[in-house]
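Hi support team,

I submitted a single chain yesterday and got back a structure, but I'm not sure I'm reading the token output correctly. Could someone confirm the output below corresponds to the sequence I sent? I've pasted both exactly as they appear in my results page.

Thanks,
R.
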Amino acid sequence: MTKEIGFIGLGNMGQPMVMNLLKAGFKVKVYNRTPNKAEDVVAAGAQQVNRPKDLVIPGGIIITMVANDQALEEVVMGPDGFGENWERVAFIYQ
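Hi R., thanks for writing in. Yes, this is the structure output for that exact sequence:
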């Protein structure tokens, strides 16, 4: 099992979840449509990426915690979405 997780969505639920993953010893890469929302988790040890597709690693896990279906479609199937590499990750989504 990988100890690296990609996480999309750093709102009221996402940010505390990332903090708990970091405390549990996971390496976490994060993406948020509003980049400055990543400041606290980056200060705690997360790595911020500029595009959702930058979260994908072979055998990795991506967790999405986004506001709605449109936001989910954007981060998966949008121009910089991770969907083109879907076979390389396990999906955990809300």
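A quick pointer for reading it: The CA atoms of residues 35 and 50 lie 8 Å apart. Let us know if anything else looks off.

Best,
Support desk
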